[in-house]
Amino acid sequence: MTNIRMSISRRGFVKAAGALAVAGLAPAIVRGQGAPMQLGILTPLTGAGGFDGPRMAKAMTAVMDEVNAAGGLLGRKVELVIEDDETNPEAAVRAARKLIDVTKVPVIMGTWASAVTSAVAPLCWESKTFLTTVSGADSITKLPHQGYLIRTQPNNHLQAAKHAEFIAALGVKRCFIMSIQAPFSQPTQERASEVLKQKGSEMVGGLIYDKDKTTYRSEVDQALKTKPDLIYLNGYAPDVTILLRDLYRAGYTGPRFAQSYAVTSKVLEALPAEVTEGVITVQPSADVGSPAYDLAKKRLGIAEPDSYESQATDWASLVALAIAKAKLATGTGMRDNVRKISQGSGSKVYSAVEGLQLLAQGKDINYEGASGPCDFTDIGDILDCKFRYNKVHAGKLAFLKVT
Amino acid sequence: MPPLLAEVTQLVVNGVMAGTILAVPAIGLTAIYAVLRFPNFAVASHATIGAFAGYVANVKFGWPILPSVVVAFLAAGAVGVVTDETVLRRFRPAGFITTAIASIALTIALENIVRFSFGNDLRGYALPIERDWRVGSIRIGPQQVQNLMIVLVAMAALFGFLSFTRTGKAMRAVADNPMLASIKGIHADMISRLVNFVGMGLAGLGGMLIGLDTTIDPLTGFRSILSVFAAAVVGGLGSIPGAVLGALTVGVGEELCLLFLSPDYRSVVGFVAILLVLTLRPRGILGQRAY
């Protein structure tokens, strides 16, 4: 075995350092000659979001591979720089600092947890870096982000409205809502009541319960006193499980409605089938059946990309189109142009490559995504999206509809 | 029955049911306090351990509920003795606060061992669920009546043990006056092991009873520990009948408050009760005499 001794002479070191300094001082010359355009991905590859993060990164990479194959952006190849936010705000801030200060990306795509997005967003707007996210907390788009943030996940306000529309469409006249004590409870109750009223239905009552209780018999009595046609269980799995049991014991046989994260397949295993029979669950859905969704299926080679993969597909496409529209790869360029390519009266396009071709011809476009229409409000929330409804039958979730 | 009276009766019935389940781990906590003089918050994880031991017996081995409940008691009791011997005992010379904090650390460690072994998912016992019985306008759950029976039998056994057996009397003697008990030749280490076994066994039994009514996960015990602690303090930390009375007070109080308050304030009742009792009767309703 040979030992290789690496030695660097003092002169060699000075030369190398000098060369690096020159390269650093002359970014315009180096980059102007077709160096790859680096865009940032900050997503949970580990931690609670570790199931979704890698799939989102893959979906974004697939879109950019297509863009590169079609000639890249502004004459340059796109290179995605992927960092792990560990589903942890502290790790996310460190990784975002690296992307912003060292790699100098104009955009960061992919934050998942609301706590992570809330921590990273100020770094982004202060450095004029564009941020795309899947976090759902209402507070995120209310941050003073000056337009440097969009999210494709429906916020709480939109979700509550859609749930209420669905409940009213079931013919429910008297709805009761039982919510866990959480920041989203009061706003959900208020918004759902408002929409039910508009649709000719009524929220006959609501209560907010304490989360760590072993029984909710008295709360169930309060709900049943109002003689509801449907009970909306707006909580998490541990408490919704107890509520479902207590409703069954109390002899309630009407429909129950809950978020899919509260009635998971594990919850269905833990409860007797008769307790969960007929429960309707809801979750934000990709726009299944849309042309962009079909393209995403082919691009990713999977039968049913989920909501997160679809949203990631849309971020990469929106970013590519906004850069092309701005003719500039900067965060401010994306901020000022993202709505010009995602909504309005331009030709509808369903992929980044299709949009890039039309933009090159000087045409206006309106990107319609795999996750939904991708039309944004002034503060960066989506205006509309689809929801998937399932119904429990014999202890299993059965598909009801996407609407 | 007039509607308000029916409502109050229903709330009291619900409160008594909730209170009796709360009483079991509260007795465990208070019994350990009576003898070892520190609040052992590891009651929380032992409740979880009991719940999971009962789950293994009931679901994995297909045993009926009653033998599974016994398994919950024995497993949690045995773990209680081992953890006290190996961990908490070493902290006791350092004083009350240090040992109480060590018990919090212990409970988090044990809870994570359960999480590591069983995962975070919710689990349910193999137990058919029944609709409530209706007596007039009042409804009562068959499962809760069964739980009530188990609790009453466990309490009767405990009181019988403390009143009529030599070891039980020795335990009370140590709780009342450790110095005198030692002069009389009572072996303090043996008593401390025994009280840990019985106390943590009751915590495990309580954990399983909570699980029978709901579902279990590694946080089952931790979620209830504040109410259990409130019950023990309200009744008089160190007093076993006090723990029962405290649990019923907290249980019924939390339900009756729904007449005036929104349900999200339910937990406040236990703590307002602690504040009131400690202000008016610093040693709790029944004082600190063990029995």
Name some characteristics of this structure.
heterodimer, A: 403 residues, seven-stranded mixed sheet, 16 helices, 45% helix, B: 291 residues, mainly alpha, two-stranded antiparallel ribbon, 11 helices, globular
Task: Tell me what you see in this structure.
The complex is a heterodimer of chains A (403) and B (291). With 403 residues, chain A is of the alpha/beta class. Helix content of chain A is 45%, strand content 19%. In chain A, the strands form three sheets. In chain A, strands 7-6-8-9-10-13-14 form a seven-stranded mixed β-sheet, with helices on both faces. In chain A, strands 2-1-3-4-5 form a five-stranded parallel β-sheet, with helices on both faces. Mean pLDDT of chain A is 90; it is low at 1-10 and 12-33. A two-stranded antiparallel ribbon of chain B has the order 1-2. In chain B, a hairpin with a 2-residue loop joins strand 1 and strand 2 (138-140). In chain B, helix 1 (3-36) runs parallel beside helix 5 and helix 1 crosses helix 9. The radius of gyration of chain B is 19 Å and the shape is globular. At the A-B interface, strand 7, helix 9, helix 10 and helix 11 of A face helix 1 and helix 9 of B.
| Helical content band of chain A | 40-55%
Tell me about the largest β-sheet of chain A: 7 strands, mixed
Q: What is the residue-averaged pLDDT of chain B? A: 91
Task: Provide a count of the helices of chain A.
Answer: 16
Strand order of the largest sheet of chain A: 7-6-8-9-10-13-14
The structural class of chain B is mainly alpha
General shape of chain B: globular
Helix share, percent of chain B: over 70%
First and last CA, distance of chain B: 39 Å
Beta-strand level of the residues of chain A, as a percent range? 15-25%
Subunit arrangement of the protein: heterodimer
Total beta strands of chain B: 2
Please state how the strands of the largest beta sheet of chain B are arranged side by side: 1-2
Task: Work out the largest interface and the residue count of each chain.
Answer: A-B, 32 and 36 residues
Task: Supply the number of helical segments of chain B.
Answer: 11
Low-confidence stretches of chain B: none
In sequence order, what are the helices and strands of chain B, one letter per element? HHHHEEHHHHHHH
Q: What's the main sheet of chain B like?
A: 2 strands, antiparallel
Mean pLDDT of chain A: 90
The topology string of helices and strands of chain A comes to: HHEHEHEHEHEHEHEHEHEHHEHHHEHEEE
